């Protein structure tokens, strides 16, 4: 089922999320709905807060954005109760966007390599060492489960310049091509 994506301004997007256990009700259905919702919105990642759930869960599929000869370097994974344990390398800028903040893109500085521990959808412990675009997408989604949005990484002047656009998203004065919920619709 395609779920509505919560837009900028919802408090759940600014909340540090809670760990879950394998008894979490309807988890496999939730994950399946998240995949469907993400693909419907042409996303490469989706975190539970973006669909109104304050739990430490996100999904990532970078395979779909890579060239054919590079697809084997991409990832398609479910991350539950994730913790980034290390970020290394010289920070690099890359233009990011977010399904909860449509029509806004901006360069965000992030370190190029991470080590992340988590449990998969079968609650088996995992550790990934990621770099490049895989690391960036995971860092972006990881931020979501910690109540951080990509615009929070921007310099104050850039954020000030985006204020009107962010308010339009909050009020629902936008027309994305996927279902959204707005924090304070007119």
From TrEMBL:
Keyword line: Hydrolase, Iron, Metal-binding, Protein biosynthesis
Highest taxon, organism lineage: Bacteria
InterPro entries: Peptide_deformylase, Peptide_deformylase_sf
Binding-site list for Fe cation: 98, 140, 144
Active-site residue numbers: 141
EC number from the UniProt entry: 3.5.1.88
Name assigned to this protein: Peptide deformylase
Record's catalysed reaction(s): N-terminal N-formyl-L-methionyl-[peptide] + H2O = N-terminal L-methionyl-[peptide] + formate
SUPFAM superfamilies: Peptide deformylase (SSF56420)
């Amino acid at each position: 089922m395609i779920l509505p994506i919560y837009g900028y301004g919802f408090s759940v997007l600014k909340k540090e999320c809670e760990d879950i256990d394998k008894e979490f009700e309807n988890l496999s259905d939730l994950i399946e709905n998240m995949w469907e919702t993400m693909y419907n919105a042409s996303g490469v990642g989706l975190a539970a807060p973006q669909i109104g759930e304050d739990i430490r869960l996100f999904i990532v599929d970078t395979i779909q954005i890579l060239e054919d000869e590079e697809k084997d370097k991409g990832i398609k994974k479910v991350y539950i109760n994730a913790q980034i344990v290390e970020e290394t390398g010289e920070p690099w800028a890359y233009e990011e966007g977010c399904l909860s903040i449509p029509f806004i893109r901006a360069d965000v500085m992030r370190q190029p390599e991470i080590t992340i521990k988590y449990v998969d959808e079968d609650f088996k412990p995992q550790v990934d060492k990621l770099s490049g675009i895989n690391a960036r997408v995971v860092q972006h989604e990881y931020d979501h489960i910690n109540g951080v949005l990509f615009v929070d990484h921007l310099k104050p002047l850039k954020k000030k310049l985006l204020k009107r656009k962010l308010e339009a998203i909050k009020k629902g004065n936008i027309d994305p091509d996927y279902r959204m919920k707005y924090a304070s619709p007119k």
